Amino acid sequence: MSDADSLRLFVLDTNVLMHDPTALFRFQEHDLFLPMVVLEELDAGKKGVSEVARNVRQVSRFLDDLIGNADKERIDEGLPLPGPCNGNGNGHDDQPLPPAGRLYLQTHNLANELPAYLPGKNVDNSILATTLSLQETRQDRLVTLVSKDINLRIKARVLGIQAEDYYNDKVLDDADLLYTGVARIDGDFWAEHGRNLESWQQGERTYYRFKTPLVERPHSQQCLYTEGEEQFEAIVKDHDTDGTTVQLATDYRKGHNSVWGINARNTEQNFALNLLLDPEVDIVSLLGAAGTGKTLLALAAGLQQTLDTRRYREIIITRVTIPVGEDIGFLPGTEEEKMAPWMGALMDNLEVLTQSEVGGEWGRAATDDLIQKRIKLRSLNFMRGRTFLNRYIILDEAQNLTSKQMKTLITRAGPGSKIVCLGNISQIDTPYLSETTSGLTFVVERFRDWLHSGHITLARGERSRLADFASEML
């Protein structure tokens, strides 16, 4: 097979460009084809302030730059796509550029009748008819339809068209390979690692320096533990070829070490509180199924650091407003009043944290009033361009955010702020997102080697025995 035969022609569906505007430049040396109906759909989706509308407008700008002043003859020949770089960066372009494909726009009618068992002339069928025609006219290329729409890919395969999902935003191959943030040390820990050991105190913290490797590939802020009578729990603070430095974890399972009235119930929750209360950790991601305590732990740590130690000025909570059932429609009121129905989990956990009997009803009312003044509910729609100083920011249901949305939100954090990302990647409600392409998965993988980030996957449910049984059996 020659090099020309190995090149492919990818037909892009509209949702690929709506999902990632830079998809035009992600196919290396292969060629792209945009049906005219895709351009029509992009034109229809350009209005508004949503993330999709912004992506569509960015695609239009990319296309405008690519076309430039080209006449129809040049467009028919295909517009050259830029390679990953333009020269060697020092003003000399004598270095060979990486191979790049061409972009073809539909400039004439590609007639092809769909089978009678596929009736109708909707957009999807028009894209399928165009792809079938390309298969007949461009037999020198392997024509592939790329779409985030599962049903369109199914119909394409029924018609004998090769169809693929858009994989460029895929963070890892399997969600089971996602970094958990916790590692168990097997064997007799102190017998194996206690010989070449240094220890010291720094303030209230205890540190150990081990010369022998504790785990195969340690990460910063990774949580290590042993099982047995002499239980050891520590967090990796530094690691290199000469050894690993760990900080002994504080035990928040005991009553005197409670955080805003609650205690950790298992090892993962204890590590989560250690990371949430560590001022050196700027971003914490907590994954886990319903009932594992993600929201409760994040709120308790936020309240203690906002109201008790005054490390942060206030707590800001936001989340994606995607309904599970039918949408309840327009909501009147201010921004916080509109967000209130989406914050049921917040209110439920605040009831747990403010149920103290000290002071009676008057004391609880005063506490509720103080908390309401320090907790702000904010919509994602108004986050762009803002900067939060000394804030404790909770991104709830973060699994429904794209990687681009996560970048937009995390870059809002100013000096002295901390971001906590909560979510369950097995409950994704956003169209075209999966466990391996979720923005939450993106953050966990990209931040796991950074010194000031921590991650914990909460495995054990602590809500109730009924909820635990339902999670396993239903």
Automatic annotation (TrEMBL):
<dbReference type="InterPro" id="IPR002716">
    <property type="entry name" value="PIN_dom"/>
</dbReference>
<keyword id="KW-0547">Nucleotide-binding</keyword>
<feature type="domain" description="PIN">
    <location>
        <begin position="8"/>
        <end position="154"/>
    </location>
</feature>
<dbReference type="GO" id="GO:0005829">
    <property type="term" value="C:cytosol"/>
</dbReference>
<dbReference type="InterPro" id="IPR029060">
    <property type="entry name" value="PIN-like_dom_sf"/>
</dbReference>
<comment type="similarity">
    <text>In the N-terminal section; belongs to the PINc/VapC protein family.</text>
</comment>
<dbReference type="Pfam" id="PF02562">
    <property type="entry name" value="PhoH"/>
</dbReference>
<dbReference type="InterPro" id="IPR003714">
    <property type="entry name" value="PhoH"/>
</dbReference>
<keyword id="KW-0067">ATP-binding</keyword>
<dbReference type="InterPro" id="IPR027417">
    <property type="entry name" value="P-loop_NTPase"/>
</dbReference>
<dbReference type="Pfam" id="PF13638">
    <property type="entry name" value="PIN_4"/>
</dbReference>
<dbReference type="InterPro" id="IPR051451">
    <property type="entry name" value="PhoH2-like"/>
</dbReference>
<dbReference type="GO" id="GO:0005524">
    <property type="term" value="F:ATP binding"/>
</dbReference>
<protein>
    <submittedName>
        <fullName>PhoH-like ATPase</fullName>
    </submittedName>
</protein>
<comment type="similarity">
    <text>Belongs to the PhoH family.</text>
</comment>
